[in-house]
Amino acid sequence: MASSIFSLAASAKKPHYNITTDVTYPPFEFQKQNGSYTGIDVEIIRAIAKKENFSMTLKPISFNSGAQMVLSGQMDGIIAGMSITPERKQVYDFGTPYYKTGVVWAVAKKAKITKLSQLRGKTVALKTGTASADYAKSIQNKYGFKISYFNDSNTMYNDVAVGNSAAAFEDLPVMKYAIKNGLQLKIPNQKVANAGWYGFAVKKGKNQALLKAFDRGFAALKKDGSYDKIIKKYLGESQKSVSGSSASTAKSTSIWSLFKNNLPSFIDGVIETIKLTLVGILLASIWGILLGIFGVARSKIVRGFSNLMIYIFRGLPLLVLAFFIYIGMPHLLNMKIPAFIAGIVTLTLNEGAYTAAFVKGGFLSVDIGQMEAARSNGLSYWQSMHHIIMPQGIRIIVPSLINQFIITLKDTSILQAIGLVELTQTGNLIVARTQQGLQIWAIVAVIYLIMITLLTWLSNWVQNKLKVA
Hints:
The chain is an alpha/beta fold and about 475 residues long. The protein is about 60% helix and about 15% strand. It has three domains: about 5-100 and about 200-245, D-Maltodextrin-Binding Protein, domain 2 (3-Layer(aba) Sandwich), CATH 3.40.190; about 100-195, Periplasmic binding protein-like II (D-Maltodextrin-Binding Protein, domain 2, 3-Layer(aba) Sandwich), CATH 3.40.190.10; about 260-469, MetI-like fold. It is built from 19 helices and 14 strands. Helix 12 (about 265-295) packs antiparallel against helix 17 (about 380-410) and helix 16 (about 370-375) runs antiparallel to helix 17. The longest helix is centred in the middle third of the chain and has 32 residues, at about 265-295.
């Protein structure tokens, strides 16, 4: 998808690197209205790539997932507003620190909270795996607040804005930038805590050529003034002037304007969702029916294999399975797995296990006397299954199969966690840019309902055809 990954053209003479970044962390990285990515980190790494003559593929994904992808070998490096800490230095090698920052906390615009002691007994929103989360955790006992964790900044901000959490901890430039561009929060105290530096990171002991190229390129950016221009561009101007977004205007806050202005992104998200759904349904159905047939086989070993597969992949949460395949498996196989392939494998194994369970149940629900009658007429076991039992069992399971198709469509939204820019992730990216959560999620909900309705009509048509046959 052009909206989720961009590449600097590679040549045979240039080294090529896969680098990950965050998806919703303005002004350091965020998506423009045209679907491309921009921000301080993005411009820095692109400028360094140009100066050092290497090509790259930039993979936007949630911060915590991106950091894990570097450690698993899926990605060569990460530039995502990553604070340099002693703990991270144990597993990452950092390049020259490129931005000094610190942690602040923010509350809803109408909140009367002015000091940390007023957070006692209340819930604080934190972003998983960040230095700001570590700082908040370190003072939790002192101020007596509870904690909720989120994978992206935008969801964390909105949890505070709607009143579910009393405050959020975030890096100062990121929070100030978001507030300046429409986020309905305020910073009660401008005092910065836990000051530190952002750094570009690679897995410890790996990709040292890339790390040296970053250091050389960054030194060149500092020397010729390019670095200062990038910082000024994003921290001295509003998001509207940087990204081309019209989020600051009253007109753009209407649902129709937001839908029209972001239509290409919505279309890309829908296409990715449909691709995942169709391929997932096809492969999960094949795998599920095969496992279901194994589940009624005469061999105890074959039945045992079917039961084990159903037990494992129905028991694993879809998100855990997706992380294991995309981030864990590369450790075992010593190879990179594309996000789309990992997503399809996840859907196939998970949805296929559920399909297998009701396929097996459908076959077993056919009166056993019909099998006995078929065998008494000279048919073999598998001939009886093929000609007598399976046709009846398939008709029985059609409603469950249709329901599983709809579940598969909805489950594609979970795959945003491994970097797939399907419809839900598209919504996240647009909200991060426009700060119009209510309107954007209303649009996303309507699009999902339309897709589910069309899928239901198609499935019902197929079901009616089978009844006629």
